[in-house]
Amino acid sequence: MIPVATPWFFYVLAGLAVASGLAVITRRNAVHSALALIVTLLSVAGLYLMLYAPFVAGVQIIVYAGGIMVLFLFVIMLVNIDRAAKERQFNRMWPVGLVAAGTLFALFLSAFLKGKGLFPDRMMRLAEASNTQEIANMLYGEAGRMGQYTFAFEIASLLLLVAILGAVIMTKKKI
Amino acid sequence: MLNSFMSYLGSTVTPGEAGNQFWALIYVLIIFTGVSVAVICMNWLERKALAHFQVRLGPMRVGPHGLLQPIADALKLMLKEDIIPAEADQFVFWIAPLIGLLAAFTVYTVIPFGPSQAVSDMNIGILFMLGVSSLGVLGIVVAGWASNSHYPLIGALRSSAQMVSYEVAMGLAVVSAILMTSMNASGTGTLSMIGIVQAQQQQGVWFIFKFFPLGFIAFAIFAIAMVAETNRAPFDLAEAESELTAGFHTEYSGLRWSLFMLAEYAAMIAVSSIAVTLWLGGWMRPFPNLLHAPAWDFIFSLFPGITFGGLAAIAFIGTARMPSHSFFKIQRIGLAVFAALLGFLALLLLVIAVAGHSADASLAARFREGIDYVYWFVLKVAVFMYLFIWYRATWPRYRFDQLMKIGWKVMLPISIGVLMLTAIWALVEPPLWEWMRAHI
Amino acid sequence: MVPITTLHYLVVAAALFVLGVIGVLTRRNVVIVLMSIELILNAVNLNLVAFSRMWGNLNGQVFAIFIVVDAAAEAAVGLGILIAFFRNKETINVDEIDLLKW
To answer: Is position C68 within any domain?
Structure first.
């Protein structure tokens, strides 16, 4: 496939992701924050598509935007109290938090700029058509051998089971 | 620009693959118009079919046999006053129908009407479809919350809980169909929609008949789950008028409500297209292997013309049966014109079928092939649409706890069982054939 | 225009990470703190996938999938804790959730 207009798409998606990330942390209304987070997740999925990772993009849309955000919206509706919307939104120590985060960002940028020579100039092009097949080979194994991540895959499913049980037990009114 | 126009004609890949933005835009516009027209026709068909199921006539006044009723409905909805509840969240109230519409219409980018007639054949087509249709739940949740009223909130919570429950069974049924695509010679399956239909073509069997009865059970699970997914009867507790005063779209009036209806019908057509692509062979004509002589090809290619000719004949008979009173003069003329248009279309399709009946790559043959692909696909989807209306007319509504019980306790175990059995059969079958070939 | 390199993606990921950190440190609404944590996880995912593209290796993408799974489990448990807490004390303000035992 011939990619078209790549820099333009990158700047649009990246700008949208950062702008809606800003909206997530500044909105007073929790539902507005959740909607902004959905926009962030979808634009990050678009960035994954640009990075030749279609399967991760699909998983992101299905699990994150279609599952976790629905969960968030349900909980926001359940615990929605009007008192919270009229209170002070930010911590009393918000300048300290802002300065700390700013320092962190400066640290990141200086690390990237100093190590600019470590990143090769031309990024390799991953084969896009067989992406799902290769991820499946890593997760499930091929030709009779176990894959590189089969054990981790099984542990992840166990983790999900434990999380489901934990969430159900914690939210039951009577155990 | 003319270069990008001409360079795509005669190519055998979708515009997305070819990187041709102009034709991709044209396809998007065609699909958008087609879906809107289909929703309008669905509206008319639903009212007429429900009426006839209930031994009454339905709309008869607005056009001949109510054919212009959807246009009158659309005009009425557009001219209604746009009421927003006082305490409602303005921005979220405005954006909720748009989210639902976005989710419903984005699915159409991957739906294949033919081997190269799709907007873009993504490699993860079916994954994209599952993900984007799960974004529709968000529109409903947000719509119910933004209305700031009890009935919409309960309706939205129930509706979204139902959609999320049946999504799981739907996804597992889809996975078991994808498993069947890997039964071809090279041993690798595919997630792309065009690849799934081509896998059915290569294996010579529609997936609904493969590994009988597993393919059929998977198809049945998807068919039931898709009715629940689009909040249609018998799973429409969340939006039925007698139950919850129209559920999550109670507070929406006029154009906003029509956007919700548009999103619902578009989602119905989208999931029916998915079912047709995955199990019913997509654009392939019936019996592609059993009856594969060129004579049968020719007979099946006459079907589009014959269908429209039949519709034109029905319209002509309707014109003849109208009372010959002066009150009905305009309706008779209107119906006669409509019948003449249908007849002209039928004649055009028959001419194309006859002119392009040879298998070479001439323009008429390519036209004929394209029309045949689109026709069989749309016919199968239309059967599903009629089934949706039939379900609504016939079956009583499920209570909400019965609905959730079915979703989690019946559909999910059956779909997991079908998936496991399909996987076992798919693993066992090739060595079994080898053993049988060696020993028998 | 300058061609898009890995560095561009890393800067975007760093920006999202820092926005998430600001959200966790400064907001008082528990749900928004949890959403900021999701922002942080997404930033890490973007980083992993960008590096996976740079080295032509799929390990980064598989790790990203595992992180998405992990984030789902964590969101479910975190929101469960929130609901259980909300039943006892009618507040979603992190400053008021400060008793070890009552």
So the answer is: yes
- Paired with C93 in beta bridges are C29
CA B257/CA B363 separation, integer angstroms = 44
Whether chain C lies against chain B with 3 or more Cβ pairs closer than 8 A is no
- Residue of chain A nearest B13, judged by CA positions: A1
Does C37 fall in a domain?
Answer: yes
Query: Which of A43, A74, A137 should one mutate to test binding to chain B, selecting the residue with the greatest count of B CBs within 10 A?
Result: A74
B334-338, B436-440, C20-24: lowest mean pLDDT where?
B436-440
Determine which of A41, A63, A123 to mutate to test the interface with C (most C C-beta atoms within 10 Å). A123
Residue C1 lies in a domain: no
* Residue C49, domain CATH: 1.10.287.3510
Taking the C-alpha atoms of residue A102 and residue C20, their distance in angstroms, rounded to an integer, is: 12
User: Smallest Cβ distance to A33: which of C10, C19, C35?
Assistant: C35
Domain of C71, in residue numbers:
6-94
Average pLDDT rounded to a whole number, residues A124-138:
80
| pTM for the structure as a whole | 0.91
pLDDT digits (tens, 9 = 90+) for A67-79: 999 999 988 888 8
- Chain A contact for C77, CB < 8 A? yes
Percent of chain B with pLDDT strictly greater than 70: 93
Question: Which residues in chain A are contacts of C80 at CB distance < 8 A?
Answer: 166-168, 170-171
* Residue type, position B262, single letter: L
CA distance B206 to B185: 17
| Mean pLDDT, chain B, integer | 87
ipTM over 0.90: yes
Instruction: Decide if C99 is inside a domain.
Output: no
- Asked whether the beta carbons of residue A64 and residue C77 sit closer than 8 angstroms, the reply is no
Q: Which residues contact A136 (CB under 8 A, 6 or more apart)?
A: none
